[in-house]
Amino acid sequence: MIKKFIRRVFGLDSGTPQRVPARTHGVTREQLPAYALKVCDALRGAGFSAYVVGGAVRDLLLGIPPKDYDVATDARPEQVKPLFRRALIIGRRFRLVHVMFGQETIEVSTFRAADAAAAEKDQHGRVLRDNVFGSIEEDARRRDFTVNALYYDPATEEVIDFHGGLADLKKRLMRVIGDPETRFHEDPVRMLRAVRLAAKLGLTIEAKTRAPIRGLAPLIDSVPAARVFDEMLKLLLSGHASACLRQLRAEGLHKGVLPLLDVILDQPLGERFVTLALAQTDERVRTDRPVSPAFLFAALLWHEVLAAWKANQATGERTLPALEQAMDTVLEAQCEKLAITRKLTATMREVWALQPRFEQRSGSRPFRLLEAERFRMAYDFLALRAASGEVPEEIEAWWRSFQAADADTRAEMLLPESAGPKKRRRRRRRKGAPDGAPDASAEPAA
Ligand code: ATP
Ligand code: MG
């Protein structure tokens, strides 16, 4: 009795699992897609156990359509693979099986133990390797939150609950399994997951789980940048980016992720711009329209670029080289933390670099801008700048009309060539001119 109590207090005990029938939790077999049922049925037919697990069960219980389905089984990868026509063993560190049905892929993983003592860790306690197969109890214990450790058995329609996840779902709580501090040390990304999932699901982070986060936030620095980037992308494309970033900031977590977010959000124009960008992204995600991560990152970092651009110009640098340098500085600083992929940064640069060109509305330049590969994205970016009050609405309205207009109207719309090419050429020849800006209208308006 006492032993059991101590085990429970120290989080060593997963307790007796509760097997909860469909009439209580409400999720029936029919709610699962055919391919998920096929995978579980095939495994079971071969004598193994098979459960839908993780986010899918949690989402079904909350009435949210799951993004993807994961299956957990006691079958080893090499026992799983031959059961399906299209299946692949993936992963070196921990092997699992991807089973493909048409467009859908379902991830089948063997129950796995997180032997905290045996796992290889870095100096912060971050687990580097945990690749031991285990029992279903052990598999449940290594998961991050109680609401993520629910197993659905399609054969009996029961939910198996080792850590009180069902009760927490009812109370709308995100609670870490075990000791929060230890679990965040093992994997600091769990702190970002807590924030993202809480925002997505409308759950509250339980007080004990939340308490250590602010203090442990710097641990994010020890996580490989590519993984932070993946998590950040999930967060930004969750349809709840605004809520997530607000909460990240409230928990002091943004410092490891977008270190200068504080600075950006402290400038009124910057805050309005970022808020608008996030709201627009959330709206697009929720209405199933495509979103571009490049656009989003370009927006998040724009006010930093603006500040650096202005600073470079103040030292006498000409407009465009000053912008180029500003982009370099900002991307270098951010990529150290955030491994934004090269493909993304290339697009971000294009979108930023096109911005000054919207100010030029005479001669052939507007026509050349229309032809630019990233014109549409750059124009959307301009619209956001206008909506946040950074550039005059009139410029955005002009470009909106110009795009839609026929050839004659476009010709009529062009502005007179006052600060046109002649003047530019003359300025270029006058090397070292004090102002140096080839076109004063291209100054950032912020
Ligand atoms: P969503 O897919 O909606 O973003 P999810 O909870 O399904 O959320 P996944 O990354 O798909 O997230 O992970 C599937 C499951 O794997 C989780 O529900 C959880 O049980 C477990 N898991 C994922 N990441 C971790 C982690 N860092 N530590 C412990 N368990 C994890
Ligand atoms: Mg998932």
Describe the structure.
The chain is an alpha+beta fold and 446 residues long. Among the domains are: 2-171, Beta Polymerase, domain 2 (2-Layer Sandwich), CATH 3.30.460; 284-413, Orthogonal Bundle (cca-adding enzyme, domain 2). 52% of the residues lie in helices and 11% in strands. The chain contains 24 helices and 14 strands. It has helices at residues 2-9, 22-25, 34-45, 55-62, 77-80, 136-141, 165-171, 180-186, 189-201, 207-210, 213-216, 225-236, 241-250, 254-257, 261-266, 268-286, 293-314, 319-338, 342-354, 365-371, 375-387, 393-404, 407-413, 421-429; strands at residues 18-20, 50-53, 70-73, 87-90, 96-101, 104-110, 112-113, 120-121, 127-129, 132-133, 150-153, 158-161, 173-174, 204-205. The protein has an eight-stranded mixed β-sheet with strand order 1-12-11-2-3-6-5-4. The chain has a two-stranded antiparallel ribbon with strand order 7-10. A hairpin with a 5-residue loop joins strand 4 and strand 5 (96-101). Helix 9 (189-201) packs across helix 13 (241-250). The longest helix is centred in the last third of the chain and has 22 residues, at 293-314. The N and C termini lie far apart (68 Å). Residues 6-13 and 420-446 have low confidence and may be disordered. The structure holds adenosine-5'-triphosphate (ATP) and magnesium ion. Adenosine-5'-triphosphate is lined by residues 54-55, 67, 70, 143-144, 148-149, 187, 189-190, 193, 234.
